[in-house]
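Sample pair:
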Amino acid sequence: MDKIKFQENLIDQIKEAQLKLGFAKETIRLYYPAASLCRLLNLECKSGEELVEELENGNEFKETPLGEIKFSLCGGERIEVQIPAEGAVYVNENIPDPPFLVRIIDLFGHRHHSSEEELTIEDICECFKSFNDNYVCEKMETETDFDYVLYFPDEQPDAWYYCIKFEMNHVIYHRFTKEDYISIVKCEI
């Protein structure tokens, strides 16, 4: 079981939420398809019910820097991961704001709607390039839910795959792990 990779994913997601919404000392709930959670934990794929039972009965997540992480089945194959308020405090006090993520959030937050200066794929590519010349920008097939995917093959400054959608005068992004991008997004084609 890859406990470290999973905890890093939780920390990344909590940090992103704190950058977008601000810090709040409160319980955080994140939701994962069972298959995504298995990939993150490097476990054989199993049903959501089996996965929750294994994680709740084990001791791997009883004591972590984020506090005791709890798991519950939330309809079908969707797993709720509950991080106590002490986890939000830990991330806020110990995890520095990643400069690249700060810049992406700022870029999308201030220029995603047509009433302002319109955000273009060239602007997004320039942001990526300013952090690492070694980035990839691919136009996605029309059958997918996204227009472009951008990522850093060497995972510097981060390992996320940013899927971009231009829609109804808005520009949004969704971040995926490489494994989920390959399994979920690429499989749409």
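Residues 49 and 73 are 6 Å apart (CA to CA).
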